[in-house]
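Same chain as my last thread, 134 residues:
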Amino acid sequence: MLKTPLEQLAYIVEKAREFDAETAPSDADSGSNPSDDGDVAILEATGDNPTEEELEAALNALDDEQRTEILALMWVGRGDFDRDEWAAALAQARDIHNEHETSYLVGTPLLADYLEIGLDLLGYSLEDYEKDRL
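reply #2:
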């Protein structure tokens, strides 16, 4: 049983997906109005775009056990461990748990996908939480 509430996991997955979708700024000096350019600037990785900070804050709001769970979930979703090795994934996550964990998670491409796959392999679904948020 997971110690991290599914609602919290859904929020982290949502923020990770937003962060993964960011692109390099196309024209920082355009001066255009967001409504004129289809609001695509929200997807640009700029200094004033809070998506990375929101993802980091969501991960840092978790307690140590929950952060190790996120790390283990990512590894299971990525295929480093299988479903039957969940306890081993958690043990390894506890062993390497340190202050760089959030940076490691945020810097992992496809984090949202790996978390969702890991959850699915363990028999959990975020579908109900995603529907309520969209």
